[in-house]
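Pasting as-is:
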Amino acid sequence: MNKSRTDNFSKSTAVLFANSYFFLALISLGALIATFIVSNSGQSFRSKLMFFAAVVLAYILFCLLFYYRQRQKNRQREREIADLLRQEEIENRLLALEDAGKFFGASLKFPDMFRLVSSRINELIPFVSCALFLVDEDNTTLEIVCAVGENARDLLNFEIPSHKGLAGKTFLEQEVRHEEKLLSDKNLLPEAASKNFESGLAVPLFRNGDVFGVLTLYGNSEVSFNENSIELIEAIGTRIAPLFTSSMSFERSLNNALTDSLTNLPNERAFYLVLENQIAESQRNREGRHLTVLAIDIKNFTELNQKFGHSTGDKILSFAANTIKGELRRMDFLARSNSDQFLAVLPTASDEVTKEIIGRIGKAFILNSCEFSEREKHHLQLNFGSATFWKDGETASQLLQNARLRKQQTKSGHNKKVLWFPQEYVN
């Protein structure tokens, strides 16, 4: 609602008041005139008294009726004003969602955008939990990728068939759906997640005319949502869909900037980001929190690449990436640098743990061969170099430099006779 609508409503209200009181004044004037005429007539005193009594009674009844009608109109007018003010507040908050898209749509990661949007929605339509379902490429499964509110952790990453439940029906019908008892979702969702859900409201999210996701609100009562909620969620859905799509595009581009396209491993830029963060953690507890960096490359990779071709070289890199990653711990971080070089961050890894991990990786390459073709397989070998935080350096560049230096030492056939120094000391 804008200012002109408010002004028009105020003017119409003023006219209504003026007309009502003008009519009351006319009735009062008519009663006075009639009383004056009768009092000066030749009728008996009894007749005049009865007439006066009838005029007074009629005037009192009219005033009571007028008061009742005005009270009803005032109440209706207050309700209309409250509705108009609420509409104005809702429109302002919806505009705030659009502004959020303009300012943050291309700079917020998807989970952050979801938290921002869900908090704004909760101001308009209160809920106990909010979940965002995204459809897979085959349109057969809906997965909860984000959730806030009660039982959010139990909802995350849960999958349902794209034709079942409140979200599935919303996806198929491509329109807002409201369920008061939510029986279908209680049979689909984990019991721990849906135990307080008594009603649901879902809206489809469109991109280029197709539904890419469903936003679902859950309430703890069968009357948590009403007709106003349904109308409001429709307006919300059209505004938040572009926010999610732009945020998804931003996160995709960010991931591409930090990912190696051949091996799907993080690249060296991502490696530095993770290493800096781990160094900060280890600096808080230098004695109690170990941190090791591994530099790895493939023995004779250049010769193999030249002999068998670049397509085989790509197979070798993919095989090496998957094999190394499979032998690392869950907390470890593996990235591809350039050519055949890989880098790993090993949080909390002491010298003994580092040796164990290197041994495990080496054994995996002995047991598993890389298929160059249907007839030809080769067992690859790796070169390793490691550097430990505090002992070999305190910065990311120092650790990486020393890890690569030790890797070069293992590749040299006379490493026991030669003293190796970082290039900065040589210069």
